[in-house]
Amino acid sequence: MNAPELPKLVLPGDYLGAAEEFLPGRGTYENRGRIYASVLGTATVDPRDRTVHVDARNGIPEIQEGELVYARIDEIKTAMAVCTIVSTGTSRRPVPGNPEGTVHISKAREGYTESLSGEFAVGDVLVARVLQSRPSVKLSTAAATLGVVAARCQVCHALLTAGPKELHCPRCGNREHRKLAQGPRPGGPAEE
Fold first, then answer.
1. Of 39, 147, 187, 189, which is the most exposed, with the fewest CB atoms less than 10 Å away?
2. Residue 59 burial (C-beta neighbours within 10 Å; 0-12, 13-18, 19+)
3. What are phi and psi of 8, to 5 degrees?
């Protein structure tokens, strides 16, 4: 038996199917044996368990294993950096509850890392991959495309710009090192 054709975009209250045929899933509710959409989004049926669910168009972002997140470094300890997760890579909405994540020293970069203070600084914004989402959030910046995307000078707090080998402060001239994400750099494109 094939899954029925559901509308591509559904509104809250749109009828999705009978409870005898399907199980209500995420983004749906059941009322008197009928399943309705509870959010604006795209309705789909999982053929394995016959669950109908609606993926919200502008839903509340959730942290999932394997996805990219933007995080701000709040504290640097000996073996880990403690971060506040600001948003996911797939949503422009902030993650509710200011969830905390950690980057262990072994997950900061490929190979050996002697000290996290040479990789990150408090206040840096980084892009990281979620390794574990429950019970605590564990992050990695080991891949070349992951790492710091915005940093401030530790002397005068101006936004740092990326040079060929290090970051420099256009205000006070201070030079600093970070584990930078390849691609867009703090302060704009890399200088030549």
1. 189
2. middle
3. -65, -50
Q: 106 in helix, strand or coil?
A: helix
CATH of 68-147, one of 2.40.50.140, 3.20.20.190, 1.10.3210.10, 3.40.50.2000: 2.40.50.140
Q: Which of 50, 66, 34, 44 lies closest to 137, judged by CA?
A: 66
> What's the confidence (pLDDT) of residue 16?
92
The structure tokens listed for 179 are 């584990």
**Quick one: pLDDT at residue 137?**
95
What confidence score (pLDDT) does residue 105 get? 94
Listed in sequence order, the residues at least 6 apart from 15 whose beta carbon sits closer than 8 Å to its beta carbon are 34, 35, 36
Task: Give the pLDDT of residue 95.
Answer: 85
List, in sequence order, every beta strand (DSSP E) within the chain: 15-18, 23-24, 28-31, 34-37, 41-46, 51-56, 68-76, 80-88, 100-104, 125-132, 137-140, 147-150, 161-162, 167-168, 175-176
Low-confidence ranges of the chain (pLDDT < 70): 1-7, 183-192
Burial 41-53 (b: 16+ CB within 10 A, else e): bbbbbeeeeebbb
d(CA 74, CA 79): 14
Q: What are phi and psi of 41, to 5 degrees?
A: 170, -160
